[in-house]
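The protein record quoted for completeness.
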Amino acid sequence: MKRIFPALCALLLLTACGPELPPEDSDRLQIVAAVFPAYDFARSAAGELADVTLLLPPGAESHSYEPTPADILRVQRCDLFIYLGGESDAWVDAILSAIEPEGEVLRMVDCVDLLEEETAEGMQGGHDHGEDHDHLGEVLSMDEHVWTAPRNAAAVTRIIGERLAALDPVHAGEYIGGAGDYARELEELDRDFAAFFAGLPDRTIVFGDRFPLLYFARAYDLDYYAAFPGCGTQTEPSAATVAFLTEKVREEGLSTVWYIEFSNHLVADGIAEAAGVGTARFHTCHNVSRAELEAGETYLSLMRANLEALREHM
């Protein structure tokens, strides 16, 4: 964060040398997305009519990312900038407070009804507020991980289509159509998740990791236990947290402890070993690896892979 203003000073250098940027007189819409879900929804709505750029590099951690001068210039020049609007991309607010965007800005958290992030039973403390937060139901902040519920993803996609249609009325029907097609696939995914969970006698899941899946859990009426909240910055749970989660796995007769993408899953491994069960990954789609991006993975494909993992391990 502290490097943003020096980075702004370097913008002048980019006009002479540096990363290639789209020409200022391009007749194609320029869309910049801060995180992968926004990138995926935007490219689905835009099709071949616009250039969509993902700002957060594949594999990068959003909470600690520091934008480059080229990133800042892209945000300033684009026609539509889409970002999450939560704690994990607070660096975006620093950019927007330092420049005057030439185009429009859309926050994903403004597209759906928000939930309050809270500590679940046994969960380690949340944000770094200098105090312990091991209290059931304590509100930490508004939860920003809105895309993790497919029905929310569909709603965001439709809104992006509407914003693009307003920016480029000549192709309005194509933007609305592209967004609608993808949204309907996401709504079908939502029905498939709902049908799967409806057939389970027990909907309890345990994550030996952060839990940025509150919207997903609420959408399908899941009981969840986890080591940390969705935006928790801690990596070492207390012995009490580990013991609680281990006992919960045993009590519920669960076969799997879950972890999320880019995790070293050491906590999940430890809980699983103590409980005598296995582990599996749930991809929250916050970001993707370089290999996943190059392979053409989408929010839809990654979430369908999650559904298959749930079918295998629950």
